[in-house]
Specification:
single chain, 177 residues, alpha+beta, 6-stranded antiparallel beta sheet, 3 helices, 6 strands, 13% helix
């Protein structure tokens, strides 16, 4: 496997396919991970941390990555075709451990909202602070709001809500018959 062009430390294992040492947190400490996929569009790394797996799960993962021709296919593709000894599809089982490392260094769950895309094909032109104003946005009519704002004259106090009377603790009183 060729080394991807990523802005952080990444090195494939020489012993096992789909296993790599990665600096996940940018602290110059490599963590061993199983690489599910690398998104070529934006450089996101989909991975499973091996130190988060117990020995049984490591054994299950080894069954998948040591299969014949496993180096030819992405790990998610191999897992989608493999059934574990417990009868569960391996991709479905290992999905709970998958995380995404963005190029910016954030570790998020797959499919989590991560802000606005920078790519111009989505129509994003920039933040409001840079002077961008959406011409299609409409302001909400004032009469549709639930809250009415009233200006007070000088010296006039705002009305405050009266608290409900406090109940005494203990048993309720017997009803008179």
């Amino acid at each position: 496997m060729s080394k991807p062009n990523l802005p952080y430390y990444f090195e494939w294992s020489r012993q096992f396919p789909h296993i790599a040492a990665v600096d996940l947190f940018g602290k110059q400490i490599a963590t061993e991970v199983a690489v599910m996929a690398i998104d070529q569009r934006n450089g996101d790394l989909y991975f499973i941390r091996l130190d988060h797996l117990d020995p049984i799960d490591i054994k299950r993962l080894k069954q998948v990555i040591l299969a014949r021709d496993s180096a030819r296919y992405a790990l998610w593709d191999l897992m989608s075709q493999k059934t574990l000894p417990n009868g569960m599809n391996s991709l479905e089982f290992f999905q709970q451990f998958v995380k995404v490392r963005t190029v910016g260094g954030q570790i998020v769950n797959p499919g989590a909202a991560r802000g606005l895309p920078i790519n111009s094909e989505f129509g994003y032109k920039g933040p409001i602070s840079a002077g961008y104003v959406d011409q299609n946005a409409k302001s909400a009519p004032v009469e549709e709001h639930d809250v009415e704002y009233v200006e007070l004259d000088e010296g006039e106090e705002a009305q405050t809500a009266v608290a409900a009377p406090r109940r005494k603790a203990g048993r309720p009183k017997k009803a008179k018959s």
